[in-house]
């Protein structure tokens, strides 16, 4: 992505038209749930950001959408 939006959803695409990443911004920082994809369209990684910082459980996937790794970044506030 060349330029982040200040607020709201953002979708970045590969040159083949497939989605590269999808998520939201708050005050110009990645915020909320994000998904990252491979060029073939398969999901590569999912997780959440809180004002630009990775939080909670992040999952990495193989090309068959099987979870290959889970990383807990903590930091999720309960409301």
Can you walk through the features of this model?
The protein is an all-beta fold. Helix content is 0%, strand content 58%. The chain is built from no helices and 6 strands. The protein has a 6-stranded antiparallel sheet, with no helix packed on it. A hairpin with a 2-residue loop joins β4 and β5. The mean pLDDT is 91.
Distance between the termini: 32 Å
Percent helix range: under 10%
Gyration radius, to the nearest Å? 13 Å
Which stretches are low in confidence, meaning pLDDT under 50 for 5 or more residues running? none
**Number of DSSP helices?**
0
The SSE string, one letter per element, is EEEEEE
Report the sheet-strand fraction. Answer: over 45%
Question: Total number of β-strand segments?
Answer: 6
Most strands sheet? 6 strands, antiparallel
Shape: flat
Structural class: mainly beta
Strand order of the largest sheet: 1-2-3-4-5-6
List descriptors:
79 residues; mainly beta; six-stranded antiparallel sheet; 0% helix; 58% strand; flat
Please provide a brief summary of the model:
The chain has 79 residues and is mainly β.
